[in-house]
Amino acid sequence: MILISTYPGEIVRTRGQSLDDLEDEKIARLLKDDRLAKRIEYISRRGSLSSSSPEVAPQIWSGFLKRWYDAPLWGKLRMHDAYIDMVDRRTATLSKRGHDIAAVLRQCSPPRCSSEDWRGVTAKNTLFIAGELDKKYCDIGRQWFDIETSLSYIEVQGKGHGLLVEAAQDIAIAIDTFSLQEKDEIPPFGTNDMKIWEATFIPSIKKSELSSNTQQSDAPSIFSIGSLDFESFNINLVNDKAENPGVLGIGWGLSTASKNEGLKKRLGFVIQVASNDGLQVGIGEVSPLDNLHMESFEEAGNQLETIANRLSNVQSQAIPSFDVERILAFDGALGDYINSLCSVLSMDILFPSVRSGLEMAILSLASSKVRSPIHQALVSNAPNSQAVSSHISTLPLNGLTTRNQPASFGTSDQKTRYSSWKVKVGYQSLSTDIQVLRNTLLGFNGDAGSIRADANRGFNESSFSSFASALKTLEILPTSGRFEYIEEPLEKQIEEDGQWFLEKQVAALERSFNQNHVPYALDESIYDLLVAHNNNFSAVKENLLSVFDENPRGCATIILKPSLLGLEMSLRLARFVRAELGIGAVFTSSFDSGIGLAYASFLATVSDASPCKTGTYQYPHGLSTFELMTSDIISPSFGSYISQAGVLNVASLSRAFFGLGLDEIQSVSPASLSRELPLEEKPTKIASMPAEGSEPVSQSRSEDPKSEYMLDEFEASTSASSTGRDIVLVASLPLPFSADVACARFTDLPQQPRWSPWLASVAYMDNGKETEWTLRVRGVSFLWRAKSDLINSPYKGIRWESTSGLKNKGVVQFIPTPGDQTAIGSCSINVQMAFVAPRLLSSLFRGTIVEEFLRNKIMKWSLEMFRDVVKGDLALEEGNLELGDALFGAVEGKANAIEATLASSGLSSSKDNQD
């Protein structure tokens, strides 16, 4: 990463201010950028209105730029030979694209932009360059260098913010030198206290000379949770190639045998854990699978309900805290914390699915606290992290062929071309097993590819010998390099007294390996081992060491299911067997949704990057079960991050999960927003639309004696459900221009932030069918995507509904005023919208005080600002600069008032006073 006088986002551990101070700074910056954007728009309008004098616009912009470059941060740029030419070029650009530049400035203001992408920047792979006279970026660079000595930091002497103009050649030399050193894998700059460059323009700089005067303070690492929330999900399973509906043979043991009734749907819960201050959230998945987990869906739900209730009733100071860095180390601290939490909540034991879901949510919460995507946070905090590769961004996966596939099925039937395929064998005829393996091989069409099998303990030693002999006909035995291993080929080895021991299971597997030369993998045996030792990692480790000594062995890998074994235990086992035993570690899912699959992929990526014995083989991971599901609960879906070659883009997936909360999960609550919002059939006075189970709260209106159709002022009504989260808002306002004009301006969706200051941005997606919206309230961002359609009957307008993220839908219509004969016309804007309030803000939507705020501030000011913005645009287009300036001044005043209100704690205090 190369940063040249570029805002790098908030640097962890340099924050010496309170959160309130930071919020004040953000608001001040936001208002400053908005004022500048409006100034640019104003100048652009003045220039465009002077078409008869084409030299006016360049003169206006030239004066603006000269004043702009007088600022101290530009240093001596005005004395540079290229300055005049630069101003001329930028004058020409501004004269043509002033409105576009203003829009970019407004939407790219740092407080409106997420800094999540910067949080994953690794200092040792970063070059940061600032001009000596550019105080702001010098301070940032020095702060960063103070705490990250591996950062490559350069100050260009005597230069300001315009480095690419003043010092273009010098910057090119710096980038070239940095890139060459990175390519040759020379230790990054900053590993010593001296930065030495061959380029003469950069002196040797000692770290002590760069020491920032800013007081540094480590970000607090002690954290605690405040609440737990959850919602159920239901995903249909489909297997179009199967002879029977659903997916057969799921689970372990005899339950894997083909049955007449397959698994047709996947039930589970998405859980959310919030920090005690409510500012950060983490999500996880709890989805027990029949014939794998001992607990049922209902039992898991009851336990989640118990946890949520007890958390809400216990004193916050009684809830134990955890050290974020220790949690992320996955060295046992996470398990200890959950045990202490259970003790406080008076819960003896958690179901495995519930425990793994809590681990996911707490891990997500911890990564938010350190401002790093999950897989990078795990790498950075891993034991012996200096030995763990940080260059991990992709993960190879294997495909899956289930037991109930028809005999003609092959890998060529699949869209994704995985390099490895797992074939379910056992519990069916030997001929069927071999035929499915043969079809899988043929599906590679001559391409290199490998196969693994999963027997789920479906053979005894005799029948497995027959299977191994039949494998020889396929010419895929290990000598060919195409057969990887078979998971748990032999039935469970039980002693006469009913006990099970790993030693006896492995002894049988080793005998079989010595006879048949087919490598095996441990799956069910790992779970049995944990049960035998009551999930004591030290005891499990010692048992594995005693069984797998230095003698030759046929164990290729162990299979790890985080949703059953737990996340922390799975990764600890993976690290151990790779580093100490030279055995591989493959992560698989239990038909999880995209959430569970994502966490398994994060663990698999970290495992693959961890130290291992020489010769330890690395296999693709078993996370392709998403292909048997008709949908996902995350958007974009887990499958969208996988290439046609079967490789998962973990880096992009991890960034998408960063800060993700329950409100952003798609289709968790299918009942949400079930009420229809009808179109107006004729001009009518606004009627409230109460949500189910609620009473409407309406604002009085003034009747217009001159018209029976149109209201003479703003009118609105709101209603909320008993939970306070389902809100319906209906409003109307007269507009002094035609419905055609109003509709054309309003449906230009990227312009919405001009009259809705709480909207940070609205942008069309690449497909052109959806828009992405960002709402920002008190420093918290809420994202959603929506589909919209223009309507023409009975009135012009627009209808929309969110497709992901914050749930909302609505319709806006522009109703002409009956009998209006004026030249510009008039109309009424009618708004009907429903939304589900985000959980972090749901408490704000309880009580008539807040409903009044929604009606009389948020909606009223928004519609009035829309009216005034359009009036101002029309005035400027007609050449009435005085009226246009006055209207935009009024809009700016309201925008500032709204931003200040939303950024303050006044709304919360209002509720507190009411309570």
Report what the structure shows.
- The structure is a single chain.
- It contains 25 helices and 27 strands.
- Helices cover 37% and strands 18% of the residues.
- The protein has four domains: 2-210, Alpha/Beta hydrolase fold, catalytic domain (Rossmann fold, 3-Layer(aba) Sandwich), CATH 3.40.50; 222-386, Enolase-like, N-terminal domain (Enolase-like, domain 1, 2-Layer Sandwich), CATH 3.30.390.10; 394-657, Enolase-like C-terminal domain (TIM Barrel, Alpha-Beta Barrel), CATH 3.20.20; 697-914, START domain (Alpha-D-Glucose-1,6-Bisphosphate, Chain A, domain 4, 2-Layer Sandwich), CATH 3.30.530.20.
- With 915 residues, the chain is of the alpha/beta class.
- It is globular, with a radius of gyration of 32 Å.
- It starts with a strand and ends with a helix.
- A nine-stranded antiparallel β-sheet has the order 19-20-21-27-26-25-24-23-22. A seven-stranded parallel β-sheet has the order 11-12-13-14-15-16-17. The chain has a four-stranded antiparallel β-sheet with strand order 8-7-6-9, sandwiched between helices.
- Residues 682-707 are annotated as: Disordered.
- Residues 259-317 form the OSBS enolase-like N-terminal domain.
- This is OSBS enolase-like N-terminal domain-containing protein.
- Keywords: Lyase, Magnesium, Metal-binding.
Give a short synopsis of this structure:
The chain is α/β, with parallel strands linked by helices. Mean pLDDT is 78; it is low at 12-19, 183-220, 407-412, 667-675, 682-711, 843-848 and 905-915.
